[in-house]
Amino acid sequence: MDGHEQEEAIKYRTTFLKQIDELLPYHVIPHAFPSILPNENNGKSLNEPTRGPDKEAESSRSEHTPSPEIPTTFESLESQFNKMDTDPLAMHEKAFKIPNCCTSNGHKPIMFLTHDESTFNANDGVRYAWSHPDHSVLYAKGRGKGLMSSDVLTPFGRLIIPPHITDEEILAAGIPQRQILGSDEMEIRCDAAEYLEYGKDNYCNGEKMFDHIIKIVVPIFALVYPNFQPVFLFENTTNHSCFAENALNARIMNWGPGGDQPIMQEAMIYEKARPQPMTTNDGVPKRIEQVLRERDLLREGLRADCSSNSCDSCRIISNTRAKACTALVKNSACILCTMNLYTKAGTLWKHAQRILCIPCTAKMSQTPLPPRNCKDCLKLRRCRDANTKKDGCCGRRILSLQKDFLRQKGKLQETLEQDHGSIVLFYPKFHCELNWIENYWGWSKRRVRIACGYTLDGLRTNVPAIVASCPNSIIYKFFLRTHRMIDAYRDELPLNSAEFKQQVYKY
């Protein structure tokens, strides 16, 4: 079980679907499709027209009757889809219909933006070919050098800058230029995609992803859709939820004095209704022990972490081995052991075998080791959810479960919501099928494999060209499929059941 149907994942998925349902009535829709998206039907998305007059293939998921404006045949639907690819102003702000609820209450219309990264490799080509029985096809070894693409999609296509916006307007909006792959030259951006030739010390991390969203995606969206509010949808990964340096994070705090620790922002003690500075009068960062003492959460015998807990039997075995190791090394006349002792002074007993020579290691093998996966130790090392003085398992866990630490948001989410007025949602874990950009990456990778030249230069040429060639209508169909999945999850249909597959994949 990969976690898709775990209790925590289902609980978060239910919350995520409620958040989507609250936002759907405010989502814009293209004029060519006035009733296919769910905001015209009380948050319930409608089916696409079927291929022909087959009545059994019609959907029974929605009680709403489609508007007469919806195309009644597959051919007429395809003709409207083609308009999204041929019309140069298909991504213009005026090409979308403003929902009635926005005009009535003054709420800004919203548009979903989904983000993700994907990698392409130089040797990732087609792995099948016709050949003579006496000959074999030689494939390149290894995956080869790679190119990472970070992109953002709207429900109706890639986030691009339409041709009616001039280069002067792009530069005036503060949108940085993009470096041409394999060259030192720069070019004016026409989309929000960012490319990275990863390898060695060059790799994608949280900081690069943050710069891509804040410095590139946000200005482009503000330039193209100034009257819309973006709703960012991110994968539930560490890159998207990493904290700022001054964020309230109990994981990077020390228990007592000593050691490096960043200066954190001011905390809040909700039980006492007062703020709590995270530095002393001398500007020194406070440690966990002092913070808990000020909150009346420190008790005698409280450990910093649960990871160092051991059961009584394992603790006795560990102490016995530590004493035997220390006595053997100190009393040994072995020159090699003595040299290692002085060069690696202060090494913990569990690493003692690494500083002993082979004969001394054989002597130490007679001293028993504690079991690797002791069930009693694993239970003691598991943090409990309680955050009271009586039930708290360790100091770090108690502090991390306080309200101000729990409400601490990631750097990206905090910046988007506070500085740019955006809405940020995270997909449920193990639910990549709800992100329509995954289908977009699959569409692109298939064509990159066919055009594979088994060189990095070929990758630099093929990836941007193929990614940019994905039709808007295809992306829109991917988006509609994800909403059929949302309807299936909302109706609590069992995953991979016949009803689930019929509702999601029958088009």
Please report the total strand number as a whole number. Answer: 12
Main β-sheet description: 6 strands, mixed
Q: Any idea what the radius of gyration is?
A: 29 Å
Q: How many separate helices?
A: 18
- The helix-and-strand class reads alpha+beta
Q: Give the averaged pLDDT, no decimals.
A: 79
End-to-end Cα distance, whole Å, is 28 Å
Instruction: Provide the low-confidence segments as ranges.
Output: 34-74, 338-354
| Percent in helix | 25-40%
Range of strand content: 5-15%
- Gross morphology: globular
The ordered H/E elements are: HEHEHEEEHEEEHEHEEHHHHHHHHEHHHH
Keyword list:
single chain, 507 residues, alpha+beta, 6-stranded mixed β-sheet, two-stranded antiparallel ribbon, 12 strands
What does this structure look like?
The chain is of the alpha+beta class. Helix content is 37%, strand content 10%. Strands 3, 4, 5, 8, 9 and 12 form a six-stranded mixed sheet that branches. A two-stranded antiparallel sheet has the order 1-2. A hairpin with a 2-residue loop joins strand 4 and strand 5. Helix 5 packs parallel to helix 14, helix 15 packs across helix 16 and helix 17 packs antiparallel against helix 18. It is globular.
